[in-house]
Amino acid sequence: MTKPGSAPSLTQAERSALSDRAMIEAACELLLEKGAGGTTLAAIGEKAGYSRGLATYRFGSKAGLFKAVGKAVSHRWLAVLQAEVGEQTGVDAMCAAIDAYAKFVQASPDDARIQQILFSEAGGPESESRSLAIDTYRRQISDVATWLADGIDTGSVRDDIDIDAEAVQFVASIVGATHLWLLVPDHVRFDAMRRSAKQRLRNHLASAA
Amino acid sequence: MTKPGSAPSLTQAERSALSDRAMIEAACELLLEKGAGGTTLAAIGEKAGYSRGLATYRFGSKAGLFKAVGKAVSHRWLAVLQAEVGEQTGVDAMCAAIDAYAKFVQASPDDARIQQILFSEAGGPESESRSLAIDTYRRQISDVATWLADGIDTGSVRDDIDIDAEAVQFVASIVGATHLWLLVPDHVRFDAMRRSAKQRLRNHLASAA
DNA sequence: CTTTACTTGCTTGTCGGTAACAAGTAACCT
DNA sequence: AGGTTACTTGTTACCGACAAGCAAGTAAAG
């Protein structure tokens, strides 16, 4: 029982969900500000309004926390992608994915930056965020491969292509463009690249029929 | 004068050049083994056969050391690129660059890995290796743009393209493919991608004439 | 050639800061 | 109330960075 004039009196689950969200939010801000290496668990906890130790306690380790942040961001991206692509297949789906990504980067550039910072961090043979990055990329490559396979089945895509190689190149283009955009933003104009990338896709992959 | 039976008696310059090389070499091995975060300056110094403090003393900071490593690797890559591309321009130069990169990755996969690890590390707003990565990417994009401009001048490349956008996409494809290869090596087959990437380039950029 | 003053390569001592864990406290639950 | 769960504080080990010192090399004077 809570005394009349006291605090909201949340349930335990609500309390932890609240602090989790606050810390992930704080982590995002700090990541953008100071990068992965410059972000400390203590700073995250305190910025979220708690003690220096909570982040470690809740997420176990720095890698664990970054994994949680990555999952949150990834989830938002996949929602946008799904909404844009819908049930399309073949080259249409790939073009829609390009549009979705452009939209995502424009609407939530912070999310895009964070995702890229975290996935870059996954470079070495260390980290737990490595496995998240691997899963995400693998998933995206296989999605594209499925689009292509369906496109071949329905006759909209040439049947003499190497599906896996094309899928990897497609994902690689987007990953690479984001990477460059993060480092050399003035050189990377997503909107300008969209047109030629889509046209190139159609020229290269669409069936002659 | 050195006593007959005594040690090699190197000059100061030779001594420091020797330890520099030893430490950069040690740093490369540790980077491949433990990643950027897992590599410590003390371990580098000791692995190179010196004290825990030498790496810091010589390179000033961890970022400074990584910068030196990056420069060494970058230098080797640029040599391969220059040898393969030569005086070619336009689409020919870009195809040669693809071949050069495939050759580089096959001949010195460790170098490719290290470069990618370091350039990934440059994601956040921190680090000194960030500026090296930026310079390198900027340089590569402008090289490709020059190839394209020359190709338009000599008539081998369509004149209705957006040079900068195409150059960025080209570099982005390679950067992204390497990034994926580092994380998901089994999905990325450089040799399979070479053929279709080059064909796509020619289809998309070569002038109709 | 030898001595001496100086420079440069390298090592050791140390400090602030951080991740990770453990033990304790306070809030919620039954 | 007792017990479970959310959170805090105390502590340890480790790392990057710096600074003071030591030793190896260099060069000028006698």
Structural summary, described in words:
The structure is a homodimer of 209-residue chains. Chain A has helices at residues 12-38, 41-47, 54-59, 62-85, 90-107, 109-121, 129-153, 163-183, 190-205. Chain A is mainly α and 209 residues long. In chain A, helix 4 (62-85) crosses helix 5 (90-107) and helix 5 (90-107) packs antiparallel against helix 9 (190-205). Chain A is elongated and about 65 Å long. Chain A starts with 11 loop residues before the first helix and ends with a helix. The relative contact order of chain A is 0.10. At the A-B interface, helix 1, helix 6, helix 7, helix 8 and helix 9 of A face helix 1, helix 6, helix 7, helix 8 and helix 9 of B. Chain A binds a DNA duplex (30 and 30 nucleotides) through helix 1 and helix 3.
Topology:
The structure is a homodimer.
Chain A: H1 12-38, H2 41-47, H3 54-59, H4 62-85, H5 90-107, H6 109-121, H7 129-153, H8 163-183, H9 190-205
Helix pairs in contact in A: 1-2, 1-4, 1-6, 4-5, 4-6, 5-6, 5-7, 5-9, 6-8, 7-8
The structure holds a DNA duplex (30 and 30 nucleotides).
